Amino acid sequence: MTILVTGGAGYIGAHVVRLLLQRGDVVVVDDLSTGRADRVDHARMVRADLSLAAASYPLAELMREHGVTGVVHFAAKKDVGESVARPAWYYEQNVGGLLAVLRAMESADVSRLVFSSSAAVYGAAATDGRPVGEGATCAPMSPYGETKLVGEWMCRNAERAWGLSWAALRYFNVAGAGWSDLGDPTVQNLVSIAIDRVRRGEGVPVFGTDYATADGTCVRDYVHVADLADAHLAVLEHLAASAGDAAERTDPVFNVGTGAGSSVLEVLAAVGEASGADVVPLPVDRRPGDPASVVADVARIRDVVGWDAKRGLREIVGSAWEAAVAGSNHPPTGAP
Ligand code: UDP
After folding, report:
1. Whose C-alpha lies nearest to ligand 1, atom 11?
2. What is the pTM of this model?
Protein backbone atom coordinates (compact mmCIF):
# COMPACT_ATOMS: atom_id res chain seq x y z
CA MET A 1 0.00 0.00 0.00
CA THR A 2 1.42 3.37 -1.05
CA ILE A 3 -0.66 6.42 -0.30
CA LEU A 4 -0.04 9.80 -1.88
CA VAL A 5 -0.85 12.58 0.58
CA THR A 6 -1.18 16.06 -0.89
CA GLY A 7 -0.74 18.77 1.72
CA GLY A 8 0.90 16.17 3.96
CA ALA A 9 3.21 18.76 5.54
CA GLY A 10 0.23 20.65 6.96
CA TYR A 11 -1.25 20.40 10.43
CA ILE A 12 -3.88 17.72 9.71
CA GLY A 13 -2.00 16.08 6.83
CA ALA A 14 1.10 15.47 8.95
CA HIS A 15 -0.96 13.62 11.57
CA VAL A 16 -2.37 11.34 8.87
CA VAL A 17 1.07 10.82 7.30
CA ARG A 18 2.47 9.70 10.64
CA LEU A 19 -0.30 7.13 11.08
CA LEU A 20 0.02 5.91 7.48
CA LEU A 21 3.79 5.45 7.85
CA GLN A 22 3.06 2.84 10.54
CA ARG A 23 1.30 0.73 7.87
CA GLY A 24 2.94 1.33 4.53
CA ASP A 25 4.61 3.76 2.18
CA VAL A 26 3.69 7.41 1.91
CA VAL A 27 4.55 9.99 -0.72
CA VAL A 28 3.87 13.59 0.28
CA VAL A 29 3.26 16.35 -2.26
CA ASP A 30 3.20 19.80 -0.69
CA ASP A 31 4.09 23.27 -1.97
CA LEU A 32 5.29 24.20 1.54
CA SER A 33 3.43 27.51 1.31
CA THR A 34 2.08 26.88 4.80
CA GLY A 35 3.25 23.33 5.50
CA ARG A 36 6.57 22.43 7.12
CA ALA A 37 8.86 19.75 5.68
CA ASP A 38 10.15 18.80 9.16
CA ARG A 39 6.69 17.49 10.05
CA VAL A 40 7.06 14.65 7.54
CA ASP A 41 10.75 13.85 7.63
CA HIS A 42 10.17 10.09 7.43
CA ALA A 43 8.04 10.26 4.28
CA ARG A 44 9.14 10.84 0.69
CA MET A 45 8.48 14.49 0.05
CA VAL A 46 7.96 16.16 -3.32
CA ARG A 47 7.59 19.93 -3.40
CA ALA A 48 4.99 20.99 -5.97
CA ASP A 49 2.08 23.36 -6.43
CA LEU A 50 -1.02 21.52 -7.62
CA SER A 51 -3.11 24.52 -8.63
CA LEU A 52 -3.98 25.37 -12.22
CA ALA A 53 -0.75 27.28 -12.74
CA ALA A 54 1.15 24.04 -12.21
CA ALA A 55 -1.28 21.53 -13.71
CA SER A 56 1.46 20.33 -16.03
CA TYR A 57 3.32 18.89 -13.05
CA PRO A 58 3.72 15.19 -13.82
CA LEU A 59 1.60 13.95 -10.95
CA ALA A 60 0.44 10.89 -12.90
CA GLU A 61 4.07 9.88 -13.49
CA LEU A 62 4.78 10.26 -9.80
CA MET A 63 1.81 8.00 -9.01
CA ARG A 64 2.98 5.33 -11.46
CA GLU A 65 6.60 5.57 -10.36
CA HIS A 66 5.74 4.97 -6.69
CA GLY A 67 2.96 2.43 -7.26
CA VAL A 68 0.44 4.70 -5.55
CA THR A 69 -2.75 2.85 -4.60
CA GLY A 70 -4.72 5.69 -3.03
CA VAL A 71 -4.70 9.45 -2.49
CA VAL A 72 -5.58 11.60 0.51
CA HIS A 73 -6.03 15.15 -0.77
CA PHE A 74 -5.49 17.83 1.88
CA ALA A 75 -3.65 20.48 -0.15
CA ALA A 76 -5.89 23.54 -0.11
CA LYS A 77 -6.32 27.06 1.20
CA LYS A 78 -8.62 27.24 4.20
CA ASP A 79 -8.92 30.73 5.60
CA VAL A 80 -12.58 31.75 5.29
CA GLY A 81 -11.91 35.52 5.53
CA GLU A 82 -9.09 35.32 3.00
CA SER A 83 -11.41 33.45 0.62
CA VAL A 84 -13.84 36.36 0.72
CA ALA A 85 -11.02 38.77 -0.15
CA ARG A 86 -9.45 36.55 -2.85
CA PRO A 87 -12.22 34.32 -4.25
CA ALA A 88 -10.62 33.66 -7.64
CA TRP A 89 -7.41 32.53 -5.99
CA TYR A 90 -9.37 30.17 -3.72
CA TYR A 91 -11.10 28.64 -6.73
CA GLU A 92 -7.78 28.31 -8.53
CA GLN A 93 -6.02 26.71 -5.57
CA ASN A 94 -8.78 24.45 -4.23
CA VAL A 95 -10.76 23.53 -7.32
CA GLY A 96 -7.70 23.64 -9.59
CA GLY A 97 -5.70 21.51 -7.16
CA LEU A 98 -8.36 18.82 -6.97
CA LEU A 99 -8.76 18.91 -10.74
CA ALA A 100 -5.05 18.18 -11.16
CA VAL A 101 -5.29 15.30 -8.68
CA LEU A 102 -8.35 13.75 -10.37
CA ARG A 103 -6.83 14.01 -13.84
CA ALA A 104 -3.64 12.36 -12.66
CA MET A 105 -5.56 9.61 -10.84
CA GLU A 106 -7.61 8.81 -13.92
CA SER A 107 -4.53 8.73 -16.11
CA ALA A 108 -2.48 6.61 -13.67
CA ASP A 109 -5.44 4.34 -12.92
CA VAL A 110 -5.50 5.13 -9.20
CA SER A 111 -9.08 4.79 -8.03
CA ARG A 112 -9.21 5.58 -4.30
CA LEU A 113 -9.47 9.13 -2.94
CA VAL A 114 -10.22 10.66 0.44
CA PHE A 115 -11.03 14.36 0.03
CA SER A 116 -10.85 16.94 2.84
CA SER A 117 -14.15 18.74 2.87
CA SER A 118 -15.52 21.00 5.57
CA ALA A 119 -18.57 21.81 7.66
CA ALA A 120 -18.33 25.15 5.81
CA VAL A 121 -20.25 23.47 2.96
CA TYR A 122 -23.40 23.66 5.12
CA GLY A 123 -23.31 27.40 5.71
CA ALA A 124 -26.84 28.57 6.37
CA ALA A 125 -28.03 24.94 6.63
CA ALA A 126 -26.12 24.43 9.90
CA THR A 127 -27.18 27.43 11.89
CA ASP A 128 -30.36 26.39 13.65
CA GLY A 129 -28.63 24.75 16.60
CA ARG A 130 -29.58 21.16 15.81
CA PRO A 131 -26.89 18.67 14.74
CA VAL A 132 -26.55 18.90 10.98
CA GLY A 133 -26.65 15.73 8.89
CA GLU A 134 -25.04 15.07 5.51
CA GLY A 135 -28.45 15.15 3.81
CA ALA A 136 -28.95 18.86 4.62
CA THR A 137 -29.17 21.20 1.65
CA CYS A 138 -25.79 22.87 1.50
CA ALA A 139 -25.67 26.66 1.34
CA PRO A 140 -22.03 27.72 1.83
CA MET A 141 -21.51 31.27 3.06
CA SER A 142 -17.97 31.79 1.74
CA PRO A 143 -15.93 31.07 -1.38
CA TYR A 144 -13.93 28.66 0.79
CA GLY A 145 -17.08 26.63 1.59
CA GLU A 146 -18.07 26.77 -2.09
CA THR A 147 -14.74 25.32 -3.23
CA LYS A 148 -15.23 22.38 -0.87
CA LEU A 149 -18.77 21.74 -2.11
CA VAL A 150 -17.61 21.95 -5.73
CA GLY A 151 -14.87 19.47 -4.81
CA GLU A 152 -17.46 16.97 -3.62
CA TRP A 153 -19.38 17.41 -6.90
CA MET A 154 -16.18 16.83 -8.87
CA CYS A 155 -15.56 13.58 -7.00
CA ARG A 156 -19.14 12.40 -7.52
CA ASN A 157 -18.88 13.12 -11.24
CA ALA A 158 -15.57 11.27 -11.48
CA GLU A 159 -17.22 8.28 -9.81
CA ARG A 160 -19.93 8.26 -12.48
CA ALA A 161 -17.56 8.93 -15.36
CA TRP A 162 -14.65 6.62 -14.63
CA GLY A 163 -15.28 4.76 -11.42
CA LEU A 164 -13.50 6.88 -8.80
CA SER A 165 -13.94 5.32 -5.38
CA TRP A 166 -14.02 8.26 -2.97
CA ALA A 167 -15.12 9.71 0.30
CA ALA A 168 -15.32 13.33 1.42
CA LEU A 169 -14.84 14.12 5.09
CA ARG A 170 -16.61 17.23 6.28
CA TYR A 171 -14.40 18.38 9.14
CA PHE A 172 -15.95 20.33 12.00
CA ASN A 173 -13.67 22.33 14.36
CA VAL A 174 -10.35 20.51 14.35
CA ALA A 175 -7.92 21.26 17.20
CA GLY A 176 -5.41 19.65 19.54
CA ALA A 177 -2.23 17.66 18.87
CA GLY A 178 -1.72 13.94 18.38
CA TRP A 179 2.04 14.43 18.69
CA SER A 180 3.41 17.46 20.46
CA ASP A 181 5.59 18.48 17.48
CA LEU A 182 2.50 18.61 15.22
CA GLY A 183 0.30 20.83 17.35
CA ASP A 184 0.39 24.21 15.66
CA PRO A 185 -2.44 24.64 13.17
CA THR A 186 -1.71 26.53 9.97
CA VAL A 187 -4.73 28.77 10.42
CA GLN A 188 -5.28 29.71 14.03
CA ASN A 189 -8.43 28.47 15.75
CA LEU A 190 -10.07 29.41 19.04
CA VAL A 191 -8.04 26.82 20.97
CA SER A 192 -4.66 27.94 19.59
CA ILE A 193 -5.54 31.62 19.93
CA ALA A 194 -6.66 31.20 23.54
CA ILE A 195 -3.49 29.27 24.40
CA ASP A 196 -1.25 31.92 22.81
CA ARG A 197 -3.05 34.68 24.69
CA VAL A 198 -2.89 32.90 28.02
CA ARG A 199 0.82 32.20 27.58
CA ARG A 200 1.36 35.93 27.06
CA GLY A 201 -0.72 36.73 30.12
CA GLU A 202 -3.46 38.34 28.02
CA GLY A 203 -7.25 37.98 28.06
CA VAL A 204 -9.03 36.16 25.23
CA PRO A 205 -11.51 37.97 22.96
CA VAL A 206 -14.95 36.39 22.93
CA PHE A 207 -16.76 37.25 19.69
CA GLY A 208 -20.28 37.88 20.92
CA THR A 209 -21.98 36.99 24.18
CA ASP A 210 -25.60 37.54 23.12
CA TYR A 211 -26.19 34.52 20.90
CA ALA A 212 -29.23 32.31 21.48
CA THR A 213 -27.14 29.59 23.16
CA ALA A 214 -27.03 28.43 26.77
CA ASP A 215 -24.30 30.89 27.83
CA GLY A 216 -24.67 33.39 24.98
CA THR A 217 -21.43 32.42 23.20
CA CYS A 218 -21.07 30.44 19.96
CA VAL A 219 -21.18 26.66 20.07
CA ARG A 220 -18.97 24.49 17.86
CA ASP A 221 -18.22 20.78 17.54
CA TYR A 222 -14.50 20.47 18.40
CA VAL A 223 -12.84 17.29 17.16
CA HIS A 224 -9.36 16.11 18.18
CA VAL A 225 -6.92 16.06 15.26
CA ALA A 226 -5.81 12.56 16.33
CA ASP A 227 -9.41 11.33 16.06
CA LEU A 228 -9.71 13.03 12.70
CA ALA A 229 -6.51 11.29 11.55
CA ASP A 230 -7.95 7.94 12.68
CA ALA A 231 -11.08 8.70 10.65
CA HIS A 232 -8.97 8.98 7.47
CA LEU A 233 -7.42 5.56 8.07
CA ALA A 234 -10.84 4.06 8.80
CA VAL A 235 -12.28 5.58 5.62
CA LEU A 236 -9.37 4.33 3.49
CA GLU A 237 -10.02 0.84 4.85
CA HIS A 238 -13.71 1.25 4.20
CA LEU A 239 -13.00 2.21 0.56
CA ALA A 240 -10.73 -0.81 0.12
CA ALA A 241 -13.35 -3.11 1.65
CA SER A 242 -16.22 -1.73 -0.42
CA ALA A 243 -14.31 -1.70 -3.75
CA GLY A 244 -16.57 -2.63 -6.65
CA ASP A 245 -19.54 -2.20 -4.40
CA ALA A 246 -20.49 1.30 -5.52
CA ALA A 247 -24.18 0.51 -5.88
CA GLU A 248 -24.28 -0.67 -2.28
CA ARG A 249 -22.58 2.38 -0.85
CA THR A 250 -24.42 5.34 0.64
CA ASP A 251 -23.37 8.77 -0.55
CA PRO A 252 -19.70 8.79 0.53
CA VAL A 253 -19.83 12.14 2.31
CA PHE A 254 -19.23 11.99 6.06
CA ASN A 255 -19.32 14.49 8.89
CA VAL A 256 -16.32 14.21 11.20
CA GLY A 257 -17.10 15.67 14.59
CA THR A 258 -18.07 14.41 18.00
CA GLY A 259 -21.79 15.16 17.89
CA ALA A 260 -21.43 17.39 20.97
CA GLY A 261 -21.05 21.15 21.03
CA SER A 262 -18.92 23.36 23.28
CA SER A 263 -19.34 27.09 23.76
CA VAL A 264 -16.51 29.60 23.57
CA LEU A 265 -16.68 29.99 27.36
CA GLU A 266 -16.45 26.21 27.82
CA VAL A 267 -13.35 26.14 25.63
CA LEU A 268 -11.81 28.93 27.71
CA ALA A 269 -12.64 27.03 30.91
CA ALA A 270 -10.85 23.98 29.47
CA VAL A 271 -7.81 26.16 28.68
CA GLY A 272 -7.86 27.36 32.28
CA GLU A 273 -7.93 23.79 33.50
CA ALA A 274 -5.09 22.65 31.20
CA SER A 275 -2.86 25.62 31.95
CA GLY A 276 -3.66 26.25 35.58
CA ALA A 277 -3.85 29.93 34.62
CA ASP A 278 -6.69 32.38 35.06
CA VAL A 279 -8.26 32.79 31.65
CA VAL A 280 -9.91 36.16 31.28
CA PRO A 281 -12.72 36.31 28.66
CA LEU A 282 -12.85 39.71 26.93
CA PRO A 283 -16.32 40.13 25.41
CA VAL A 284 -16.12 41.96 22.07
CA ASP A 285 -18.51 42.38 19.11
CA ARG A 286 -19.74 39.42 17.15
CA ARG A 287 -17.49 38.35 14.28
CA PRO A 288 -19.39 38.85 11.01
CA GLY A 289 -20.66 35.61 9.49
CA ASP A 290 -20.39 33.50 12.66
CA PRO A 291 -23.39 31.17 13.09
CA ALA A 292 -24.59 30.65 16.69
CA SER A 293 -24.21 26.90 16.76
CA VAL A 294 -22.66 24.29 14.44
CA VAL A 295 -22.74 20.67 15.63
CA ALA A 296 -22.33 17.49 13.58
CA ASP A 297 -24.76 14.63 13.33
CA VAL A 298 -22.22 11.80 13.35
CA ALA A 299 -24.52 8.81 12.80
CA ARG A 300 -23.49 8.16 9.21
CA ILE A 301 -19.74 7.74 9.71
CA ARG A 302 -20.42 5.65 12.81
CA ASP A 303 -22.89 3.36 11.06
CA VAL A 304 -21.20 3.07 7.66
CA VAL A 305 -17.49 3.30 8.50
CA GLY A 306 -17.53 2.28 12.15
CA TRP A 307 -15.56 5.35 13.29
CA ASP A 308 -16.35 7.36 16.40
CA ALA A 309 -14.42 10.18 18.09
CA LYS A 310 -12.71 8.92 21.27
CA ARG A 311 -11.43 12.20 22.71
CA GLY A 312 -13.35 15.13 24.15
CA LEU A 313 -12.73 18.82 24.75
CA ARG A 314 -10.48 18.21 27.74
CA GLU A 315 -8.08 16.02 25.69
CA ILE A 316 -8.20 18.42 22.74
CA VAL A 317 -7.24 21.44 24.82
CA GLY A 318 -4.84 19.48 27.05
CA SER A 319 -2.90 18.15 24.05
CA ALA A 320 -2.81 21.58 22.40
CA TRP A 321 -1.48 23.10 25.61
CA GLU A 322 1.24 20.45 25.95
CA ALA A 323 2.25 20.94 22.31
CA ALA A 324 2.45 24.71 22.78
CA VAL A 325 4.62 24.35 25.87
CA ALA A 326 6.81 21.69 24.24
CA GLY A 327 7.21 23.71 21.05
CA SER A 328 9.70 26.16 22.45
CA ASN A 329 11.22 26.32 18.95
CA HIS A 330 7.99 28.00 17.82
CA PRO A 331 7.14 30.19 20.85
CA PRO A 332 4.28 32.66 20.57
CA THR A 333 5.48 36.23 20.08
CA GLY A 334 6.33 37.84 23.36
CA ALA A 335 6.39 34.57 25.32
CA PRO A 336 9.05 34.27 27.99
N1 UDP B 1 -13.74 32.82 18.66
C2 UDP B 1 -13.67 33.75 19.68
N3 UDP B 1 -12.49 34.39 19.90
C4 UDP B 1 -11.38 34.17 19.14
C5 UDP B 1 -11.46 33.22 18.09
C6 UDP B 1 -12.67 32.57 17.87
O7 UDP B 1 -14.65 33.98 20.39
O8 UDP B 1 -10.34 34.80 19.36
C9 UDP B 1 -15.01 32.09 18.43
C10 UDP B 1 -15.60 32.26 17.03
O11 UDP B 1 -16.46 33.36 17.00
C12 UDP B 1 -16.34 30.93 16.85
C13 UDP B 1 -15.53 29.94 17.67
O14 UDP B 1 -14.72 30.72 18.56
O15 UDP B 1 -17.62 31.00 17.40
C16 UDP B 1 -14.61 29.08 16.83
O17 UDP B 1 -13.88 29.91 15.96
P18 UDP B 1 -12.74 29.36 15.01
O19 UDP B 1 -12.18 30.51 14.26
O20 UDP B 1 -11.81 28.52 15.81
O21 UDP B 1 -13.51 28.36 14.03
P22 UDP B 1 -14.81 28.54 13.09
O23 UDP B 1 -15.95 27.93 13.84
O24 UDP B 1 -14.99 29.98 12.81
O25 UDP B 1 -14.46 27.75 11.89
Report:
1. 207
2. 0.94
